[in-house]
Design goal:
Length: 317
């Protein structure tokens, strides 16, 4: 949408998916997902083009995506993206709904939505998931969250930090399906009484041809979605304010021989620049610090210090 169709202004896509696991652009699927369970239960794996963490979708989950072309002032502003959904929940009587942390929405402290963004030229896509009546048992089983991320938030289990929206709705809305809730959200956000009153763009055959071509060439391939599991000997991970950062690397004669950077951080840069800077570097704090100082960490990862990344690689965090 932000690369091909490029309709000027602000649009919104909202839909419900068949069972799928969606992972961030820089995540290692082999570390984030229970792949045997995923394949056994015919759950699709999809890698998005934005950062962020792994999420599970099913028919009880709603996906929303804001498409903004021409004005990127609000890029990275998750508060603005989540606010209309929180406002819609408040009007239903769910007073504890809020946008919180880096990119979450929560009810009474429990997460019901994670959001992500990706930018291309003068356009960006920003959206996320809304757990309305998601099968939490499947989500817990198919996702293998980073323990360091949970510990950094003082959480001992995945159950303690997530919730569906439906149990928090007043009794008169408990019969709502996911489709009912989706239609309510859209009508509320567009300020109309019924879904048919929302201005809608219908994809043409030409649009679908572009989508199908993108799928065939990249986004439906195992190479893109699963990627390669380096399986290197050494693995270090830490949850920073920007998100989880992990390095998987090998060493020969106390020098880094291969290295791969993973995580659920957001960046418009290229983390491979950091990997290249560390290739062949002596496994010593000063050498690693010097190598990292030659690249723009802010641009190619996010706001994390050279000293913190050095400490992580040296397993000192």
């Amino acid at each position: 949408m932000i690369n091909d169709l490029r309709l000027e202004g602000h649009g919104l896509i909202c839909y419900i998916n068949d069972p799928a696991v969606i992972i961030g652009q820089h995540q290692n699927a082999y570390a984030e997902v229970n792949l045997p369970y995923l394949k056994q239960h015919d759950i699709q794996l999809v890698r998005r083009t934005s950062g962020g963490g792994a999420v599970y979708h099913d028919r009880g989950n709603i996906i929303f995506e804001n498409i903004v072309v021409g004005d990127t002032t609000d890029f990275r502003d998750f508060q603005k993206i989540g606010a209309p959904i929180v406002a819609a929940l408040h009007d239903l009587g769910v007073a504890g709904a809020e946008v919180r942390g880096r990119n979450d929405m929560a009810i009474d402290g429990k997460k019901f939505s994670g959001m992500a963004m990706v930018k291309a030229n003068n356009a960006y896509a920003a959206g996320g998931t809304i757990m309305f009546d998601l099968d939490e048992t499947v989500a817990r089983t198919v996702l293998t969250p980073d323990i360091g991320k949970l510990e950094s938030k003082g959480i001992k289990s995945v159950d303690a930090r997530i919730t569906n929206v439906k149990p928090h709705l007043p009794a008169k809305y408990q019969a709502w399906t996911s489709e009912d809730f989706k239609n309510y959200l859209l009508c509320h956000m567009f300020g109309v009484e019924k879904f048919a009153d929302i201005p809608t763009y219908h994809l043409t055959e030409a649009d679908w041809a572009v989508i199908d071509a993108r799928q065939a060439s990249r986004f439906a391939t195992d190479e893109w979605n699963f990627g390669q599991n380096p399986g290197y000997e050494h693995y270090v991970s830490h949850h920073f304010p920007i998100g989880t950062v992990a390095f998987n690397f090998n060493m020969v004669d106390r020098h880094i021989s291969e290295i791969k950077l993973f995580g659920d951080f957001f960046t418009t840069g290229n983390p491979a620049v950091i990997e290249a800077a560390l290739q062949g570097v002596e496994y010593h704090a000063e050498a690693i610090r010097a190598a990292l100082s030659t690249v723009n960490i802010e641009r190619n990862l996010s706001s994390v210090s050279v000293d913190d990344l050095t400490a992580l690689i040296m397993r000192m965090l």
